[in-house]
Amino acid sequence: MSDEMPEPVEETDEAYEPAGPAPLGVALEPTGHPAVDARLARLAEVDHLPADGHLEVYEDVHRGLRAELTSLDTPPAPRPYDNRS
Questions:
Q1: Is there a domain that residue 8 lies in?
Q2: Longest dimension (CA), the chain
Q3: What is the band of 31 on the pLDDT scale with cuts at 50, 70, 90?
Q4: pLDDT (tens digit, 9 = 90+) per residue, 49-66?
Q5: Tally of domains within the chain
């Protein structure tokens, strides 16, 4: 074993700057459903947010898409003149 101490690491004045947000470049194709397309378009907002801001957008889009899917299972409301005898 050596009794030599490792040389100390010199500290520099240069501060480390993490890379800023960058777009992923994922193209969105229209689905033909305006409400769904609007939710998916909101995903583009994360291109300009730091990573810790993505979760809020993803959860909001997920809630909106779930609501759209749930509305497909809801039977249409009867119109006023549908109950004619």
A1: no
A2: 102
A3: very high
A4: 888 889 999 999 999 999
A5: 1
CA–CA separation, 68 and 37 (whole Å)? 11
Domain range enclosing 63: 34-73
CA 82 distance to own-chain centroid: 42
CB atoms within 10 A of CB 64: 16
d(CA 25, CA 60): 21
CA 54, 50, 63: angle at the middle one, nearest 5? 10
In a domain, 50, yes or no: yes
Predicted TM-score (pTM) of this structure: 0.60
AA identity, residue 22:
A
In a domain, 6, yes or no: no
